[in-house]
Sequence to fold (209 residues):
Amino acid sequence: MNKAKKTKGIIALDADGVLLDYHASYALAWQRAFGVLPAVKDPLAYWPIDRWSVQRVTGDELERFRQCFDEEFWSAIPALPGTLEACHLLKEAGYDLVCVSALKETYRLSRLKNIHGHGFPIDDVIATEHSDTSISPKAKALSDLKPVAFVDDYLPYFRGVPTSIHMALITRESNGTPNIGDELDNVSSSHSNLLEFAKWWISCAPDIK
Fold:
């Protein structure tokens, strides 16, 4: 009888900006709301409102835009280049993958559908809604999950994460990035994208304490 293969632990992955291209879907949501696909204003902008040629909206227009961030939106975000390969490399290396996303629980299954639709070998999505505390909304879930590593592209989401977890920051678009300052000292490693992290982790993991 074949015994189940023992895993090397869990790697927790953020979704937007790590696995999925939230920027692209933001532009499509704008098109759904207002009938125009916005042009790129700054391809190196961290925040989508700065990346696209859009204006800040308020009142009824803001509500119309918000309504486009629905089950359809969270089910159809495209994958970032190289992320599917990265996840398969990590899975083949013996790790279980779980997505830990700052998302309303209402949309957890939509996010899971999105991820599985791309073929990501990710076991589950844990939704952690935003909070007003100084601690990351993901800290409690990560403390319970006990992954060997946590990968995110937003520096504040490492606040309060147990130091026993390897904290890997994805340093994507630099203009307006929040990934600066003294808190970078709390990060275990930095990488330009998930594929770079995966290759580095697989080659270095035995030596990482």
